[in-house]
Amino acid sequence: MKILIPLSLAAMTLAAPSFAAGDAEAGKAKAAICAACHGANGIAVIPGYPNLAGQNEQYIVSALKAYKNGERNGAQAMIMKPQATMLSDADMANLAAYYANMK
């Protein structure tokens, strides 16, 4: 048991960068193309498309990565995969920070 605590702490420390928040201002600059479907204020302009304003940051990142990796095959996958493919991990984190900070 004594060894598990230090190992757990070490694992959490190593994983911490993956939980680091992105740069919301950089995300705002990158979000112009997203606005076509998700709205300039993060409220979707197309029925059935998700609102991104106030969405959980980690969820946005995981959703974008899943689209990029072909792990999501739902109705919007044909639209989202090409968009997500153009994004780096930093871009995804920045977009997520931008939308998560919206009200």
From TrEMBL:
Domain Cytochrome c: 22-103
Gene Ontology molecular functions: electron transfer activity; heme binding; metal ion binding
Keywords on record: Electron transport, Heme, Iron, Metal-binding, Signal, Transport
Record-linked PROSITE patterns: CYTC
Gene3D superfamilies: Cytochrome c-like domain
Pfam families named among the record's database cross-references: Cytochrom_C (PF00034)
Signal peptide start and end residues: 1-20
Protein name according to UniProt: Cytochrome C biogenesis protein CcsB
Species whose genome carries this gene: Enterovibrio coralii
